[in-house]
Design brief:
This protein is an alpha+beta fold and 475 residues long. It has 10 helices and 23 strands. A hairpin with a 5-residue loop joins strand 9 and strand 10. The chain is globular and about 70 Å long. The N and C termini lie far apart (54 Å).
Length: 475
């Protein structure tokens, strides 16, 4: 038995023991509330913006780990600062919600809930329906999850002082965005930007739409744009040792160099979707990606004014965990988690996470944890003769756009939690003897890396079931 095969069996055993330990402690996965949606109406949209640079003062004197590629990669230089930006989106003084964009690889729901608890007074005062954090998922920022330290030494990649700074900054921008609110009009526009995407794994089901949520204040002050596109901010590559927001930095810079606009950014369904294959030079490719998207955003000419109505429904749910390695990382506290016993799946474990449904005017939005593949959201999974498993799309859950009943559904992913990839069942392949440790290969000899960083086979089914349940209450 090789080392990896032994490790795969060991983490599976440890995961199962973890479930039994929770049961012995009396931990139960209690039934979760199924809230009805909050509906906010008014005569005018009211929005506010705030931004913070989130860089440690000892960046050059202390060891920080770069997140997103291999473990143990030490940050050596700074190309551009990591920032967090918030937007309050409300209607008159009747309530609203706070949507934050953070230049980080991800943030666990456990740590987000710390921020929410600290904002309890603001949420009550403002009639806030929720505080939501979309991570740009830069692969050149600080490890804010814990996966990218030195796990062979049982050392998390998170730095406690930096995490305190980050969580405090998230709280501050939320408060300031609400304080800075002003009345105006809200528009949504889109443009197709196919050249800014590259599919690294079949099937090629990418969604190439750049969406712009645009707030225009009535007093003529700065506009606020919240942009969304599906491409991994991993352009600088695994050898990079510079701190950077990756292409979102260049995207925002391209826009703000031309116009005085406050810009936020969030990613869509980015599973196996890389930025455009513009050139071999990685820093140059990063710049071109950002500039391409920035210019596309500036050129959007099909804005639709949104009626003043906001619907918000935040839903907690349990997602089964089959990935023994991720379960191990949680058990040694390399990353924060909320684990419960579960009757589904291989390990008998589940992660407590969440999703959010929003209707902004006429635009339907889903905020999802982790990194779903485009076919999970929009369809287009491979037929049986081309699929990794040899099985057809009939074993896959219904695509989310069909569950919602909206082909123009907007998704913000890596939002409110970091749960890894979500792969359709008919394309889900594990290594036969080294599951979740080594990449599997299918009958076409295509590598299946993404499954090793997923919660497991049941993730797609679980998301689809919960979206369907939400839509029953929304409609």
């Amino acid at each position: 038995m090789g080392v990896n095969e032994f490790a795969a069996k060991a983490v599976r055993v440890i995961g199962k023991r973890g479930s039994k330990k929770l049961i012995r402690k009396g931990v139960k996965a209690e039934a979760l509330p199924r809230p009805m949606p909050t509906v906010i109406k008014g005569d005018s949209y009211v929005c506010g913006y705030a931004k913070r640079v989130v860089m440690p003062e000892d960046i050059h004197a202390k060891k920080y780990w770069v997140a997103g590629h291999g473990m143990g990669n030490v940050m050596e230089k700074v190309h551009d600062d990591i920032t967090v930006s918030a937007m309050w989106i409300g209607a008159d003084d009747n309530g609203g919600y706070i949507h934050i964009s953070a230049d980080i690889i991800g943030l666990t729901n456990f740590e987000l809930n710390i921020v929410r608890a600290n904002l309890k007074d603001l949420m009550e005062e403002s009639k806030c329906a929720g505080v939501f954090v979309s991570c740009t998922h830069t692969h050149a920022g600080f490890d804010t999850v814990g996966y990218w330290g030195q796990l062979y030494k049982l050392q998390s990649g998170k730095d406690a002082e930096y995490m305190d700074l980050l969580l405090k900054s998230l709280e501050e921008v939320a408060r300031e965005a609400y304080k800075n609110r002003k009345a105006g009009k809200l528009y949504i526009g889109t443009v197709s930007v196919p050249e800014a995407q590259f599919c690294k794994r079949e099937p090629d089901a990418m969604h190439d739409v750049l969406t712009r949520i645009r707030f225009v204040p009535a007093d003529g002050s700065k506009e606020m744009w919240f942009l969304n596109y599906a491409a991994h901010p991993n352009t600088l590559g695994g050898d990079n040792k510079e701190c950077s927001a990756d292409y979102p930095y260049w995207l925002r810079k391209t826009i703000t160099d031309e116009k005085a606009i406050d810009v936020l950014y969030g990613v869509g369904a980015i599973g196996a979707v890389d930025p455009g294959d513009f050139c071999e030079d990685k820093p140059e490719r990063t710049r071109i990606e950002g500039e391409t998207l920035g210019k596309a955003a500036l050129g959007i000419d099909n804005d639709k004014e949104m009626p003043v109505e906001i619907t918000v429904l935040q839903q907690k749910y349990y997602s089964p965990v089959d990935n023994g390695l991720l379960a191990l990382m949680a058990s040694i506290k390399a990353c924060s988690s909320q684990r419960y016993p579960c009757e589904k799946g291989d390990l008998g474990l589940a992660l407590l996470t969440e999703m959010v449904y929003i209707k902004l005017g006429t635009q339907q939005i889903l905020m999802l944890p982790g990194e779903p593949f485009p076919e999970v959201v929009y369809g287009g999974a491979a037929p049986a003769e081309l699929s990794a498993t040899g099985k057809g799309t009939d074993i896959n859950p219904t695509p989310l756009v069909d569950i919602v009943g909206d082909k123009e559904l907007l998704v913000f992913c890596v939002t409110n939690d970091m749960t890894g990839y979500c792969v359709t069942p008919n394309d889900f392949i594990l290594h036969k003897t080294q599951a979740y440790i080594e990449q599997g290969r299918d009958v076409f000899d295509r590598r299946h890396y993404h499954e090793t960083n997923s919660l497991g086979y049941l993730t797609n089914e679980t998301i689809a079931e919960n979206v369907a349940d939400i839509m029953k209450r929304v409609k």
